[in-house]
Amino acid sequence: MKEKSLAAALLDKLETFLQEQNFGDSPKELYEPITYILNLGGKRIRPLLSLMAYSLYKNDLEKMLGPAAAIEVFHNFTLMHDDIMDEAPLRRGQATVHEKWNTNVAILSGDVMLVKAYDLLLQTEAKHLPEALRLFNKTAAEVCEGQQFDMNFESEEVVAAGDYIQMIRLKTAVLLGLSLQLGAVLAEASPEDAQKLYDFGVNIGIGFQLKDDLLDVFADQSKFGKQVGGDIIANKKTYLLIKALELAKGSDAEELKYWLSKKEFDKEKKVNAVKSLYERLGIKALTEAKMNEYFEEGFRQFNSIQFKQAEYFNELRQITQDLIHREK
Residue 146's Cα: distance from chain center in Å? Predict the structure, then answer.
């Protein structure tokens, strides 16, 4: 029998820990959605990063399970509320909480999820709790800021590329940074290493979102798992569209404006037309270059940390590389 990877072993411990949590029973409409969304099959990337970062320095992993679970519960709380704001019918292929129950249930259940995340964070050792709370609160506020910027962009005609990068830094990347930083802080790594791991997480988080933007347009449909071109159909202001609006001139600019303004259209025709325009403007190469810039900076930070357990360092690097090279 093949031996489990270090990451798989950590995830098993985390999953067991999460399943043992009793978030509450009554009223069931308040608590059932918490169990429901936590069991929808997420990859648990954020708590895994926390556990891996902790394991770079210490072996007593049980001390990290509560704080790592807090990050996962907080992340799913944000998804529950984001789905309401986006009016999303599906999450990981299943009905979203507000669709399965209703919007009011999803709001209230999400609220109590945030409370339960703090309950889990309170399992942090007393000497580290003030710092853990400070970092957690800072990140929680930044995630909300990122979501608000994202909503603001929907009604703004022009969004600068730098503003988009800042939005994804806040909405997505800072939570990856916190996941790694918190593991390092609780394992009593040096402040320098904790900061480098945070910077690593933020940089790869930005890179991952740019990768998602690319895959939405250029992925192999048979591997992608969802409709290619969804962002194009929705006129979503991704890095690709922002750069295209910035660079398109003459007939290219007119064609892009035409597709962005059209209310009724053939979806496949629009996707193919905008994708061709992106190819003419070299948008794919530009986005790949920007994405790789963040990945390279992230690994520069990561490779300079003073870890104690090399096997976790090597596996954490491999996990990140696998995510970078994914095709879906």
Answer: 12
* pLDDT tens for each residue of 287-318: 999 999 999 999 999 999 999 999 999 999 99
Length of the chain: 328
| CATH class for the domain made up of 1-123 | mainly alpha
Common-topology check for domains 1-123 and 141-328: yes
**Does residue 192 contact residue 172 with C-beta atoms inside 8 Å?**
no
pTM, 2 dp: 0.95
Listed by start position, the domains of the chain span 1-123, 141-328
Say which CATH class 141-328 falls into.
mainly alpha
- At residue 93 the predicted structure's pLDDT band, cuts being 50, 70 and 90, is confident
